[in-house]
Prior knowledge:
The chain crosses the membrane at residues 99-117, 123-142. By secondary structure, this protein is mainly α.
Amino acid sequence: MTPQSDEDEVWRQIVASFNETAEDASAEQPWPDRENVTEEPDAGEDDGASGDAAPGDGIRDDDGTGDGTGEMRASAPADDHYIPPAPPPLPHGDTLSRLSWLALFGGPAYLLLAALLQWPMDGWIVFAAVAAFIAGFVILVVRMGDGPPADSGWDDGAVV
Length: 160
């Protein structure tokens, strides 16, 4: 037999035994029995049917009396929710960057609006809108500050 035919035979056996079930699953477990997961009810779930809740233990009545006459509900999950802090305010930016953003979006927006409303567009209006778009883009890219910080010194770190 050739190595290729051995491999083909192994694949045929794998395909033939695909839908078979193991006779003794516990004998073939690759992990210890103590790691098997059993389904247990969650300790935090309480359907209110046990009746062993005492007043003041995190469960209260809907009517607020705590005497057990109203429907009980758990108040602890509501207290455990994460409330993120308020986000910091957005940076205001200087006048040049605001004008650059206006030119970047304003030029194409004007051309689109003029085309939809069929306004007459002279050559200089189209040129000004395209020039505003290009100028806004260039100013924003130049001001990105992609270089190293000014206080980083002469060493730029490891170069790979």
